[in-house]
Design brief:
This protein is α/β, with parallel strands linked by helices and 257 residues long. It has a single domain, classed as Protocatechuate 4,5-dioxygenase, Chain B (3-Layer(aba) Sandwich), CATH 3.40.830.10. It contains nine helices and ten strands. A six-stranded mixed β-sheet has the order 5-2-6-1-10-7, with helices on both faces. A two-stranded parallel sheet has the order 3-4. Strand 8 and strand 9 form a beta hairpin. It starts with 6 loop residues before the first strand and ends with a strand.
Length: 257
Amino acid sequence: MTARMPVLFLGHGSPMNAIEDNAWRRGWADIAGRLSRPKAVLCVSAHWETSGAAAVSAAAHPETIHDFGGFPQALFDVRYPAPGDPVLAARVGDLLAPDPVVQDPARGLDHGVWSVLLPMYPDADVPIVQLSLDRARPNAWHYEAGRRLAALRDEGVLIVASGDIVHNLRDVDFRTGATPDWAPRFNDTAKRLIETGDHGPLIDWRALGPDAAAAINSAEHYLPLLYALGAAETGEPVSFFNDDVFAGISMTSVQWG
């Protein structure tokens, strides 16, 4: 019998974390070492946005996408040749039906996916499917999509949401590197709501006030959290790791189950 897989939300921060030896990278590797080996990974990343329909990567051999600039050549040289899983991609479409899901045979894996999975599964031997963020959908839809996808947990699939609870680089003074007060305050608020299973305010985050508005900003890094919350089961154990906030970024990561 296949063991039920947990759900992960990973604060991914800079793509340099994929190649630097730091505590966050070691945290991702450590969590993978303590989990049952998944049959496949379904990853929802902040860095694939669509509008009007969700999409899944349906390539058998997805390429490594370097969707950034201004970093050292060593980062552009990274390749993460994990296989895709067209059957799982089709299964995701079935679970989200009747809402349309585009099966994209050309889509590769962006850095929100490979920067965290490279430390977790360095042999690149676990099949990966990526699901896009349909930005035309309301917050509640993303949460409900997570609920529908939760069935994959009983099929050996590890659901990984990759983003940042706090992500706002526009309102940070990088000359001083200071962390604005709203960043740890909102991170603490989100952790409290996650720990108590109070998902409603996290879905309707704008009602949480100015700290949320500053911390979430353009929301693409926050929305993956809603999928993880939806896929989590009421009352199951929740724990935090990589629990750091600096400047306008939260690396806080969460495991359910």
